[in-house]
Amino acid sequence: MKLITIIGARPQFIKAATVSRIIAATDGIEEIIVHTGQHYDANMSEIFFEELNIPKPKYNLEVGSGQHGAQTGAMLIKIEEVLLKEKPDAVLIYGDTNSTLAGAFAAVKLHIPIAHVEAGLRSFNRRMPEEINRIAADSISDILFAPTQTAINNLKNEGLEKQTVYSGDVMYDSVLYYKKMILANQEHYKTNIPNSPYFLATIHRAENTDNPENLKKIFAAFGKTDKPILLPIHPRTKKIITDKFELPSNVSIINPVGYLEMLSLVIHSDKVLTDSGGLQKEAFFLDKPCITMREETEWVETLENGWNCIAGADTEKILAGINTPDPVIERGNHFGDGKAAEKIVALIKEKYK
Ligand code: UD1
Ligand code: UDP
Asked: Is the pLDDT of residue 243 over 90?
């Protein structure tokens, strides 16, 4: 069978790395990767293809940045051309970005079945572009690979249970797989690790970057902590803070790092402060308490026993999270058995052979 994988943003490269590795080891599936070009800086794109051995995209649509409509529309036009030319048996999409939505819309209009990895996540906040992307993509996909029981429940509530399959989370597979490699090669990922105990932070969500007041409140909290804060900076955030912000002296900004270095930075940190979806889970998988600088999370399982807390962009809540003693009860396992990718690939092969 011929499978077209459509990816374009950093977290999708990371998820696809794990699934594509299993596809490559499976007879009978030809995978063609289409990169929309949503993320294009070397440290937001190429680095992941190189270090995670993701097969080189046959097509790079080089769509680049833009308003939601313009960006998604440009992707739609170009993905449709590829699908008409390649005539795949199925299309594989990941997560909730504009690349996900464009891939789904292009495929469904050509009657090509869609498999959606990381289906069923909901924040119930329709102001988030990702929430719209997910709801739309889930409603037109043929197989919905749900990473958690909560995702299954959400899909059921929307009448989508027939298409839903519990897979577990491919990001959990990834952490289990790469953690061993990182621990065996720790010297390699040491460059950016501070000399004293530190917190690891990331910020890129629209609700924080597009609202200077929120960013100020977040940095006010950072400035009141007694530990260094290491912040690998998303290009979206970098654009804003270089112009307008005086950073607290304990915050060190570095360029975005590769996935393996990022996991190593989580492993060595004391806590994680983030508005990222993926990083909340990585903190959880690697036993690090997380403070989520959003008003809600899709990954509600991580909140159990205090491993994650919701602080929004509220200075006091962020500080309270930082000052809360580490959880004493071990975290549960809600994200599968580390074989989500195997399940996903086996079902795709079986269904579209
Ligand atoms: C996108 C996803 C978000 C995901 C995030 C992962 C959507 C709507 N949002 O958000 O769900 O969490 O990716 O990182 O799809 N930029 C660069 N270089 C790049 C990429 C982006 O400079 O390689 C800058 C551009 O100024 C661009 C801005 O970052 O306008 C935002 O990029 P975009 O892909 O639109 O959204 P993200 O915030 O990255
Ligand atoms: N990540 C990375 N380098 C960085 C920052 C993040 O490799 O400098 C990884 C992180 O470990 C996680 C993924 O990128 O696997 C999360 O992507 P992001 O936060 O951009 O998007 P989200 O998960 O919020 O959609």
From this structure: no
Pocket of ligand 2 (CB under 6 A): 10-11, 14, 202, 204, 232, 256-259, 262, 276-279, 282
Question: 304 with 188, same domain?
Answer: yes
Domain of residue 314: give its range. 177-323
Q: Are residues 37 and 86 in the same domain?
A: yes
User: In the chain, where does DSSP find H-type helix?
Assistant: 10-24, 46-51, 68-86, 98-109, 129-140, 149-157, 170-184, 206-209, 212-223, 235-244, 259-268, 277-285, 315-323, 340-351
Q: Per residue in 10-42, pLDDT tens?
A: 999 999 999 999 999 999 999 999 999 999 999
Residue 328 lies in a domain: no
Enter the pTM of the model. 0.98
Residue 329 domain flag:
no
Q: Whose CA is nearest to atom 16 of ligand 1?
A: 235
Residue nearest to atom 15 of ligand 1 (CA): 97
Instruction: Tell me, yes or no, whether 210 lies in a domain.
Output: yes
> What is the rounded (10 degree) CA torsion for 101, 102, 105, 109?
-170
**Does 210 contact ligand 1 (Cβ within 6 A)?**
no
Split into its structural domains, the chain has a count of: 2
Specify the CATH number for the domain of residue 214: 3.40.50.2000
| Shared domain check, 94 and 7 | yes
CB of 186 closer than 6 angstroms to any ligand 1 atom: no
